[in-house]
Amino acid sequence: MPIIAEQVSQLVEPVVRAAGFDLEDVVVTEVAERTDLTVVVDRDGGSDLDVLADLSRELSDLLDDAPSTVDAVYTLEVTSPGVDRPLTAARHWQRARGRKVAIEVAATDDDASPRRLTGRAGPVDDGGVLLVVNERGRIRTETVALDSVTTAVVQVDFGQPSVTELELCGLDPDEIRRRRSEA
């Protein structure tokens, strides 16, 4: 019997929430006679590998005992979203605060074509996100309505943001020091 992503989602979501995470996605991939089951979770502040390993063991035990998956042969992976994860909910934007993002904004009556913007995700409120844009050292901000964003992803960032950029993103001094020391 094949594993159904929706059934797995309904089964694991209460356990994921009890562990303090949001269930972002369940992906079932069937390759030959093997089934790969990926459970994507996230929470404010991220997670470390030990916490994900504990959650993986708990979900594995749950799936091994559930009627819909008890006889299934699968490989379980519990992971956090990668940098290529689309930003589709306000909580995704909040968790990406200070990170470099590339977005496409839908065309409006004033704009005949979609706009593409790259900047750092700032605070989210009232259905909009503050985007901090650094154009050759000139920093500006722009509020973008979340419902106008057609695509948005976190970018791999090889540069070190300025303190001013990170302050405009709403990060506190300790978080700014931590991020600048990692770069």
Structure overview:
The chain is 29% helix and 34% strand. By secondary structure, the chain is α+β, with helices and mostly antiparallel strands. The protein has 2 domains: 5-79, 2-Layer Sandwich (GMP Synthetase, Chain A, domain 3), CATH 3.30.300.70; 90-182, SH3 type barrels (Roll), CATH 2.30.30. The chain has a 5-stranded antiparallel β-sheet with strand order 7-6-5-4-8. A 3-stranded mixed β-sheet has the order 1-2-3. β5 (115-125) and β6 (128-135) form a beta hairpin. α1 (5-18) packs across α2 (49-65). The longest helix has 17 residues, at 49-65. The relative contact order is 0.13. The model has no long low-confidence stretch (mean pLDDT 89).
What structural category do the secondary elements indicate?
alpha+beta
* Secondary structure: number of strands: 8
* SSE run: HEEHEHEEEEEHH
Largest sheet: spatial strand order: 7-6-5-4-8
Count of alpha and pi helical runs: 5
Quick one: biggest sheet? 5 strands, antiparallel
Number of domains: 2
Instruction: State the low-pLDDT regions, or none.
Output: none
Name the CATH class of the largest domain.
Mainly Beta
- Helix percent reads 25-40%
Report the CATH topology name of the largest domain: SH3 type barrels
Radius of gyration: 19 Å
The rounded distance between the terminal residues' Cα atoms is 48 Å
Question: What share of the residues does DSSP label as strand, in percent?
Answer: 25-35%
Question: Which overall shape is indicated by the principal axes computed on the Cα atoms?
Answer: elongated
In the CATH classification, which architecture of the largest domain applies? Roll
**Mean pLDDT across residues:** 89
Subcellular location: Cytoplasm
Protein name: Ribosome maturation factor RimP
Domain Ribosome maturation factor RimP N-terminal: 11-84
Pfam families: RimP_N
